[in-house]
Amino acid sequence: MRYPALLACTALTLMAGAGPGFADDVTAWRLFVADHAAAKVTAIDLGTDATLDTFALESPGVLYTTPSNQAVYAVQGAVNLVSAISSGIEIEDHGDHGDIHVAAPAAIAAAVAGEKPVHFVEHHGEIALFYDGEGVARLVSEQDWLDGDDKLAIREIDTDAPHHGVAIPWGKYALATDFAPNGETTRPQGIFVYDAQNAKVGDLYECPLLHGEATSGNITAIACATGLLIATGSGAPEITHLPYPASLPEGNVSTLLGGVGLQYFLGNYGPDKVVLIDPTEADAFRLIELPTRRVHFAVDPQQPKFAYIFTEDGKLHQLNVLSGKIAKSITLTEPYSMDGEWSLPRPRIAVAGHEIAVTDPLKGLVHIVDASTFELDRDIPVEGLPYNIVAIGGSGATH
After folding, report:
1. Quick check: pTM over 0.85?
2. How far apart are CA 323 and CA 68, in angstroms?
3. Is residue 12 classed exposed, middle or buried when 0-12, 13-18 and 19+ CB atoms within 10 A define those classes?
4. Backbone phi, then psi, for 78, in 5-degree steps?
5. 10-residue stretch averages of pLDDT, the chain, 399 residues long
6. Disulfide-capable partner of 36 in 98, 166, 251, 387 (CB 3.0 to 4.6 Å)?
């Protein structure tokens, strides 16, 4: 289903003296697509499929967004920089409705430098960037970044040694990884809690081969070789360990996504499996076998019971997270083998309202699938090798 850029669905005539004469419901969605080889991001209006603008980066970037939907963040590890682009879409919550404001996307002047940025984590309006080359986490307010101030207030947490780490903002506190060298990996071996003065609180929470974190509802999960660390609480985080059950085959989670609308986690588990996790259940882990090796996966924030998995045979699968079954599948591309380097250009998924966007780098296309029918709706050509992708948008009233 196609959405005009500013689709007026209804018009409400208001009583005299009650406010503006009309309120229109508007839906607007945009895709932001990073190129695999070129240092650029293409902004696409999903109402017209037209390119709104192309933004130059310093090097090819990995894209992230946050629940605010107000910006796209480009992590550019090759040039030691994280920069941002305003999405041009803002939804203002008024309780019984939201007001939507639509403008042109624009580059934001503020950026955060540091040696080898990799992991980007947002939690409750704060953003944590971890710089592997320094072992330093830099935390900033998202609102300050959106305001565009060149001199962002940055909170730094030094973990004492460069490693492939991560940090999670937690109000006055923060969680950050600890590197315990074992001669075999640069992966962290656990996390510490830090207070507002960036001092460690308590002992190390062990988490061997830590990699992957996500938040769903009021739970944050961190993946380890032995299970998950589960963090909860509105003050200092309360952290417990959820071990993998003996029923799971050998393996571990290293990428986690958090459900929206439904509280659950979706993680990888070996090359051709995923696992659904509900830490509140006695039987917390459900393993799902895939027909072939997994390339990428994403959750659906609009239809919470669904997630999507792209496999190397060129198929997109709809996973029902309630039943734990693959409900539908569609062939979108030629095969993209998972043999070879992990960083080769392969498809990525983003969910835009009632549409699912899948990049096809080798064909220079973004495939748009109707989430309701799970059929291909159309293709959008994108110059170059369209690779990482995020979708930003929503619906609201205009006055």
Report:
1. yes
2. 30
3. exposed
4. -70, -25
5. 36 35 76 98 97 98 96 98 96 71 95 97 97 96 90 93 95 92 73 96 95 97 98 95 97 97 97 97 97 98 97 98 97 97 96 97 98 98 98 84
6. 387
